[in-house]
Batch of 4 targets.
Target 1
Amino acid sequence: MSARFAIIAVSLSLAACAGPVVRPVLSPSRPKGDALLVLPGFGYGRTADKPFRSLAASTADEGVDLYVAPFITRSGLASSRAKLARFVRQNRLDRYERLHVFAFIAGAWTLNPLVERHELPNLVSVIYDRSPFQERAPRIAADELRFLAWVRYGSTVFDVARTPYPPLSVPAVRVAIVVESTPTPFIQRYDTAARQYGPYAFECDSFRQRYDDCLYLPMNHDELYVRFAEVWPELVTFIRTGRFSDAADRTPPVDHPFARRRQQ
């Protein structure tokens, strides 16, 4: 391995899975009613907390304390799941009457088995970020960029790539799906590899997860981290009512957005 490649690899390793924790500034006088726990994925880096920190004051004004747990470890899904369970205990999320979760893609793979084991007894609702595009990224990384993927993310990216989605089946928990409808630059770059895994399916039923409501976002995975505040009104509506607003886009793309972009 060349010296230049070694430097790149070390730099990637230092940057991996290092996003900061976000916690609310708690008022001792306010009742502990609702908390939203955001479970970021592989795209959450050292500076990705800024949109969430900016949003936290607004969510608190609406009676929802915002937590962001960077739970991903290099040791695999089981280790990441244990780290997430520790975060829940250490931040005493069981003191809230109602716990809600927004799970980015790797977050869903990590969270669902915990819920099935009844380790979040006050969980009321889960909103999943799903993407026909980005859910292929771990497999592309494992197949096309195996060494660099391991250097940056360790075993966990390979676990997600080869582990079938474990759907949440607990009937008492309300479930929503937020579907990204555009590809990231990574997926665009590896479009040929991504297409080899089969056709893209955007219908909500294609995600193999029961749901109470489902909407479509004109964003890609990277944009959702940065523009999370734009989605918050729909999230809080679901938290309060179990449904997104009447204005939510519930119509799947009629054709392949990436194909349209390539033809322009």
Note: The chain has one domain: 17-24+31-263.
Target 2
Amino acid sequence: MPDQPKPPAPSAPAQNNLDLGPEASANHLLGLLRAGSFDGPIKPGETRVLPGVFFSVDPDSKTSGRFHSAVQSLLNIDFAIDGKSRWVALHVKLGPVDLTDRQVVGVVCKSSSPQATTFQLSLRSGREGGFIDHNFRKTTVAYAAPSTHLDAIQIEADSTLPLKAPWRELVLLFRPENSQIVLKDLRIFIV
């Protein structure tokens, strides 16, 4: 099936999750992205890259695109928006991370784009009947030269952030416009 993502190459290292800490699940998924070879279309609705990593695109839009891995890149992403789209996002599942006795949830993102663009990073926490999003304070800017973005949510400073949740995700909310973005690296830390 040419339109299905290719699974990681059998010789890809690190199929076992040896990461420790509350962010271990997400960083393991990101490690699999770094080690594997992935390619596939992006369509309205959900597009799975690998279990636990997926694109979510407004199902009522006429968005198309493609993702693929490349040397020294986590994921290369191309979007084409025909008309309007309410959202275009990449999700990385974190599992039911418990934030009790933790101080910050942080992210490091290295990216580039041939045309300057921005995107927002958000911590999504599941709750009864849906979810709640907590945006990181800074907007990520991608432009021609690779740049590194560092941001953190101070847990005790946000009384609406649930310390416990049945599931969490890191969500990269892209601008719903034609764009090319190279995610060179992405790391999550919780301390």
Note: The chain has one domain: 24-190.
Target 3
Amino acid sequence: MQHSNCFHGRGKFLMTLSFTGLFLCTVLQLQAQDLEKDIIGKWLMVSNGDGFLGGHILFKDGGTYQYYRKWPDGSGAEIAGGYELDSESNPARLKLCLGDCGAAGSEWTTNFGIVRSTEGNQLEMYFSSDGSYPDNFPKDIDAKGMYLFQAEH
């Protein structure tokens, strides 16, 4: 009786595919957990597409932030509130609320964006102008709504 290697070859392929999928899911989950952990701290504005001269954002444990921006006339302003990070989305979604994210009317004062960390302790954020989450990052680093931050050491 002859044995067919077709099943064994297909079984090995499916086993390899399953392990690869499991590995990728684990890596993506770790990256999501890393972003949630790594976003905490103070980030200095390196560049932006909205004409600000500089600034910084501070993400705190417990889901709050403080965001300072320096306007072209030299004046500055700080806003603060809650943030929600959905690191399970691809790209990760970031909601910055003025005050409490659950407060009545907060949808009118909320910035919706996407966020990713890059090599060299940098954080890229891209905010929409229409009250929805962007689908992906622009190719132009100087696009309106695009921000690049460097971790403060």
Note: Residues 19-33 have pLDDT under 50 and may be disordered.
Target 4
Amino acid sequence: MLADDRVLLIDFENVVGGAQPRESLIRSRITALITAAGPTHHKIAGYAPKDPREDPVASVLAELGVASWPVPRGTDAADRVLLRHAHYAYDRGCRLFTVASGDGRFARLADLGRLEVLAWTEQTVSRALVQAAGEHLRRLDRPPPAGATDPDPAPRGRRPPDTTRATPAAGREETAPAAAHPRAAGSDWWRPTATAVLTGIGMGVGQRLADAALRR
């Protein structure tokens, strides 16, 4: 390795999460860290799998070109293996270390060469690590899971109500349908009333004619 070959050390649980995160979350955050780090000689992540038999982390890391180093669950176990690998790289000539973590244990890498630190905005970073990295501490926006477009998706199996309206054709103004006029329900609405009135008049006239004839 050359002195300016960069090694990216990813403290997985510190920057992604340790409670068996979703694959989309792993992919989005690791990709953001790789992009921010720039060209590297190689990349390695240390993590403690919750269940080695059902571990999606190693597969996603391999897909992204990151070597994985599973460790037994325990305090700072991932930190120790990453520091061990940093010394391995140092013995082979590496002098440029980029660490994705806020853990103060990595401050000692400043003794091996140039230390760069990647951390999320609002993430807690150890004071010792801040001092060791100096101007080489970079804050990154925490990305959402890959493919997430709706912050509050509808529950699975239930479709949200359709509140959209068809877009009017170009050059035409969209108007609401006119309310139906009472006569629209039946254009002959007046016929029953007229029939009743005329029938009554006819009966009255007939009765008067009958009375006059009887008087004669």
Note: The two ends are 140 Å apart (CA to CA).
